[in-house]
């Protein structure tokens, strides 16, 4: 190692040179100004870890003092040699001297300054380090200062030199104002809160300030409020009250926290009464439930802590005075009063949100229960505040409730005054005004002033100076009230109860003339006239109502009218009654036709002709809804059987089977066949079964086939049973064909080669169809009936024939058959390949099987 004195005396030649260094020395002698040769020599010494390394660096710098590369490497070498040494080691001064000598030539190189400043910082020389930093800032251009300032700031933060640091920070912020937040954090960390608050207020007021930490202006404002509210004794340069109130005007969505910050500032300042005023002001001004909840909770906590503190003081005081007890009771009463006002204060918040909310005004009145003066003030304020066009809810309920409050307290004149004012309010709907008039009349009735109630209704329904349309929104509701059905209905009820017949009739007539009547009004009018024995007047009233309304609204009027008319003139004015029914049924929808047709038929049964009654029933079967036709046909058949006898119902059954749906048709066919069986018409019954079988899938309607089978067992023979089974197979094949065709179509659309699938489906169909017709193999039918062949009288066996699996073994006593056992095969055999619908079963089989008895009845 070489020292300062060696360098100054230039005693480099006194240092011994190794043999390995001689070639490099020779090159240096030949090229003393070549950086490359000097660097090659230095690298050689580094690899050999020679002690002459510093000497060679000094020799090179003496020859080349302006070489940044050599200076930089030399300084790094000298700094690395300081590792592990105490900062009091003299070698540190040698290194500092080397930096100073380097800066004579390298004072524009920021890297040299940075390394020098870092070295001085590690040596903990505060003043010398600060001077070096300042020299670096003066020497370097301003474009290079950003490389020095971070080191300078880190140096200041390491040492408790607050005043120096503050002054340096102020210089730094002139260059980089965006780092103000870092300065504020430092001030807060060292306890200089006043200056920190001032700086924070400055950046909050700068609209163009962009936080390096990504904080919004709102977040910075909250930090400022927290800082100034929690440290009132340390912040003297700011007006805390004005700042927070400015935030209240600026950030209306954060009123709760800001109010709490302002109150907290006064609490920490010891101004408890001022803090209480702030809390009261806050809960009286916030407009959201969230802000109210935050402020109220903080207020309650403040009062509770104040009470607890006072109780602790009282407990620790062995000799409490009367003033102490009064103070304790005062704080307790104050806390209880606050908790009792919570619901009322919350209601005030909701009313500040929307002062036109009628329901909230009603809730406010309920909160003042037991305080009549407060209730009156609340109602008065409500009716003055709520505007009809902006009201949320029904405004008239406030006026009505206000009047009822006076009524309940026996102040009827005051209630009348309130209702009188309520009738002049410009409501948005006529129904609201009508409700006020009705409530007023009901109040008069409750107190026995019936005549006064009638006068009120007369006033309410008085015609205006000019006629206006009821739905004309440009006109006031007072001008349109004369067409309010609600008022007229109550007027009519009052006239019925307390008026005369003429006045009540005049009211009903006026309702009809104004064309505001409803079917119920017409019915009520008719009942009123009927009660007073004005039957014809009642009927005329019904007719007026019928002229006013159309179907289906007129149904109730027609029903009442016809019922009353039948009751009054049922047997004396049949023709007039018929005309009424015909007029009613002319445009009657199917939905309402059933009851009217039954009423019409009842009239004909009781006072007319049976033929007319049957005609009405027949018309009814086609006039009612499709789902009601089955029931209507049942009634028709029952009435026909009662009047003409059972045979006459055949035509009705035929018509029913033609028009009803499949399910009802099956039921009707079974009943029809049962009737024919009871009459002894077995062939007709069998034809009905055959006809119905076309809509009876054996897989679904097994009940039908079971009934037919039982019928054949009781009344048929082998041929008829075989025919029934053949029809059953044919019908089943028909339904299978439909299902298989649909399956084939689905498979056809699902795959590319449709021909093979269609072929498979047809083969499956053929196999099913041929399985039942194959007579070569004896089988037992699904019905469990075994078919066998008969034998001849002489006991000889018949010729060898194909065994028919459908042969039935009947007992001789069960059926009426030939005793010889022979069957006419030519007549009995039926071509099973012919579909049922192409055989001798007519679509309307019933006409071809009429008996003489039927013909006599028809004639």
TrEMBL record:
GO BP terms in the entry: generation of catalytic spliceosome for first transesterification step
Location(s) in or outside the cell: Nucleus
Domain named Pre-mRNA-splicing factor Syf1/CRNKL1-like C-terminal HAT-repeats: residues: 388-774
Feature: compositional bias, Acidic residues: 811-834
Basic and acidic residues: bias regions: 850-859
Pfam families assigned to the protein according to its UniProt record, in alphabetical order: HAT_Syf1_CNRKL1_C (PF23231), HAT_Syf1_CNRKL1_N (PF23233), HAT_Syf1_M (PF23220)
Residue ranges constituting the Pre-mRNA-splicing factor Syf1-like N-terminal HAT-repeats domain according to the UniProt record: 20-178
InterPro entries: HAT, HAT_Syf1-like_N, HAT_Syf1_central, HAT_Syf1_CNRKL1_C, Syf1-like, TPR-like_helical_dom_sf
Superkingdom field: Eukaryota
SMART domains assigned to the protein according to its UniProt record, in alphabetical order: HAT
Coiled coil: none
Pre-mRNA-splicing factor SYF1 central HAT repeats domain boundaries: 181-386
Keywords for this protein: mRNA processing, mRNA splicing, Nucleus, Repeat, Spliceosome
Signal peptide: none
One of the record's GO cellular component terms: post-mRNA release spliceosomal complex
UniProt-annotated stretches for the region Disordered: 811-859
Family note: Belongs to the crooked-neck family.
Protein name per the record: Pre-mRNA-splicing factor SYF1
Gene source species: Cephus cinctus
Lineage of origin: Eukaryota, Metazoa, Ecdysozoa, Arthropoda, Hexapoda
């Amino acid at each position: 190692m070489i020292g300062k004195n060696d360098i100054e005396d230039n005693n480099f030649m006194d240092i011994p040179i190794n043999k390995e260094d001689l070639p490099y020395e020779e090159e240096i002698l030949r090229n003393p100004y070549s950086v490359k040769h000097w660097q090659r020599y230095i690298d050689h010494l580094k690899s050999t870890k020679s002690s002459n390394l510093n000497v060679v660096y000094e020799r090179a710098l003496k020859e080349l003092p302006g070489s940044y590369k050599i200076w930089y490497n030399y300084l790094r070498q000298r700094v690395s040699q300081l590792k592990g040494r105490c900062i009091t080691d003299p070698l540190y001064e040698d290194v500092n001297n080397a930096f100073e000598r380097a800066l004579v030539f390298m004072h524009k190189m920021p890297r040299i300054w940075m390394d020098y400043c870092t070295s001085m910082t590690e040596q903990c020389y505060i003043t010398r380090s600060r001077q070096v930093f300042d020299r670096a800032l003066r020497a370097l251009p301003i474009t290079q200062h950003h490389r020095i300032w971070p080191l300078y700031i880190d140096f200041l933060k390491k040492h408790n030199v607050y005043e120096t640091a503050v002054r340096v920070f102020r210089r730094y912020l002139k260059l980089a104002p965006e780092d103000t937040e870092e300065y504020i954090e430092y001030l807060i960390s060292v306890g200089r809160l006043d200056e920190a608050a001032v700086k924070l207020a400055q950046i909050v007021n700068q609209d163009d300030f962009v936080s390096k930490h990504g904080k919004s202006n709102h977040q910075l404002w909250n930090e400022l409020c927290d800082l100034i509210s929690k440290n009132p004794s340390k912040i003297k340069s700011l007006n805390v009250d004005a700042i927070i109130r400015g935030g209240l005007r600026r950030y209306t969505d954060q009123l709760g926290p800001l109010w709490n910050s302002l109150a907290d500032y006064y609490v920490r300042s010891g101004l408890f009464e001022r803090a209480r005023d702030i809390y009261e002001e806050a809960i009286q001004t916030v407009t959201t439930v969230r802000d109210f909840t935050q402020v109220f909770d903080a207020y309650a906590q403040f009062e509770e802590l104040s009470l607890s503190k006072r109780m602790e003081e009282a407990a620790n005081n062995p000799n409490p005075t009367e003033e102490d007890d009064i103070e304790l009771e005062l704080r307790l009463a104050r806390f209880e009063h606050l908790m009792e006002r919570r619901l009322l204060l919350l209601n005030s918040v909701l009313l500040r949100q929307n002062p036109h909310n009628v329901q909230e005004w009603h809730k406010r009145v309920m909160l003042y229960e037991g305080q009549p003066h407060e209730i009156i003030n609340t109602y008065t304020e409500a009716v003055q505040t709520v505007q009809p066009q902006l009201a949320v809810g029904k405004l008239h309920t406030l006026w009505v409730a206000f009047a009822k409050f006076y009524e309940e307290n026996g102040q009827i004149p005051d209630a009348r005054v309130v209702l009188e004012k309520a009738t002049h309010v410009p409501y948005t709907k006529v129904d609201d005004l009508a409700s006020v008039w009705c409530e007023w009349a009901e109040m008069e009735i409750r107190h026995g002033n019936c005549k006064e109630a009638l006068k009120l209704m007369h006033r309410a329904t008085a015609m205006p100076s000019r006629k206006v349309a009821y739905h004309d929104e440009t006109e006031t509701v007072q001008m349109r009230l004369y067409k309010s059905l609600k008022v007229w209905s109550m007027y009519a009820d009052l006239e019925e109860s307390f008026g005369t017949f003429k006045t009540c009739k005049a009211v009903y007539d006026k309702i009809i003339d104004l064309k505001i009547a409803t079917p119920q009004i017409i019915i009520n009018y008719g009942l009123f006239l009927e009660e007073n024995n004005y039957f014809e007047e009642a009927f005329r009233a019904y007719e007026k109502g019928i002229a006013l309304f159309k179907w289906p609204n007129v149904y109730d009027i027609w029903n009442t009218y016809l019922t009353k008319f039948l009751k009054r003139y049922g047997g004396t004015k049949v023709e007039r009654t018929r005309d009424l029914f015909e007029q009613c049924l002319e445009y009657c929808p199917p939905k309402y036709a059933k009851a009217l047709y039954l009423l019409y038929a009842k009239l004909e049964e009781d006072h007319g002709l049976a033929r007319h009654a049957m005609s009405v029933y027949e018309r009814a079967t086609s006039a009612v809804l499709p789902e009601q036709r089955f029931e209507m046909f049942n009634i028709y058949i029952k009435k026909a059987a009662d009047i003409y006898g059972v045979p006459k119902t055949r035509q009705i059954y035929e018509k029913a089977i033609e028009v009803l749906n499949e399910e009802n048709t099956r039921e009707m066919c079974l009943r029809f066949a049962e009737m024919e069986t009871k009459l002894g018409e077995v062939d007709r019954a069998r034809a009905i079964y055959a006809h119905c079988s076309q809509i009876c899938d054996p897989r679904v309607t097994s009940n039908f086939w079971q009934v037919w089978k039982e019928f054949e067992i009781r009344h048929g023979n082998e041929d008829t049973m075989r025919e029934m089974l053949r029809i059953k197979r044919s019908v089943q094949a028909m339904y299978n064909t439909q299902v298989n065709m649909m399956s084939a179509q689905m498979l056809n659309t699902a795959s590319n080669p449709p021909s093979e699938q269609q072929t498979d489906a047809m083969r499956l169909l053929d196999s099913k169809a041929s399985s039942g017709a194959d007579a070569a193999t004896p089988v037992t039918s699904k019905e469990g009936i075994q078919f066998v062949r008969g034998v001849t009288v002489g006991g000889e066996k018949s010729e060898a024939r194909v065994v028919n699996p459908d042969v039935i073994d009947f007992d001789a006593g069960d059926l009426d058959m030939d005793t010889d056992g022979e069957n006419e095969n030519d007549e009995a055999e039926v071509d099973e390949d012919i579909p049922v619908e192409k055989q001798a079963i007519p679509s309307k089989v019933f006409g071809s099987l009429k008996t003489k008895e039927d013909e006599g009845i028809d004639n």
